[in-house]
From TrEMBL:
Residues spanning the membrane: 34-52
Keywords, in A-Z order: Membrane, Transmembrane, Transmembrane helix
UniProt protein name: Secreted protein
Length: 55
């Protein structure tokens, strides 16, 4: 799930950068990209992978 969130955040960062949209400092393309990298790191670490039933 966090991998999908990371992909969406990377897409938004790309759109902000490619369209040259002027945003405030909190939503700059670099900050959105860093949020995507954080979500991707959490996904790779196994956090947010969902619940697995043990038998």
């Amino acid at each position: 799930m966090l991998g999908v969130v990371a992909a969406v955040l990377f897409f938004f960062a790309f759109l902000i950068n490619a369209a040259d949209i002027s945003t405030n400092d909190a939503f700059s393309s670099t900050n959105v990209m860093l949020l995507g990298l954080t979500a991707l790191a959490l996904h790779v670490a196994g956090i947010g992978a969902g619940w697995a039933r043990r038998r």
